Amino acid sequence: MEADGGPCVIAVASSPVHGFSKAVLPRIALVAGLGVAGDAHGGETVKHRSRVRVDPTAPNWRQVHLLAAELLDELAAAGHPVAPGALGENILTRGLDLIALPVDTRLLFPSWAALRITGLRNPCRQIEDFQAGLLDRVLVRRPDGSLDRRAGIMAVVEAAGPIAPGDAVRVVLPEPPHRPLERV
Hints:
This is Molybdenum cofactor biosysynthesis protein. The protein is of the alpha+beta class. 14% of the residues lie in helices and 29% in strands.
């Protein structure tokens, strides 16, 4: 289901507690500079527990987690059925190669909400704990030894607004040169 044939939101999710999966909701509200209203990972400073231990004053470049529905399709075909929200994403999209977008790409929504992409989600052991064998599907070692992180991207909220399934997603690339996404 793509809005007018272009990229769109398939599902939205949030959780007020630190956990792995998030509850799918009819809509979420983005709050500028903070993240998803009511989500445990929102805030100006880091909220992911491993990062808080390192530096609790560091900026939160991981306010919103986005994941492509195409990845869930691929995982299901490989025997790993995963429901929307189960991997902890806030926004599930379709029709958009999120991983291929450069740093500082802006994603715009019909409500005037805007996200700025900061980097890749770094898949961790929790994914394997969630479903055995899943980590090897979202963290793949390339022939050159580098890692292909496929568990979605992270963003910060630049402009507030609601997001709901069916919303179109408009992509605005930054000025060149484009920087590839790295883990944040």
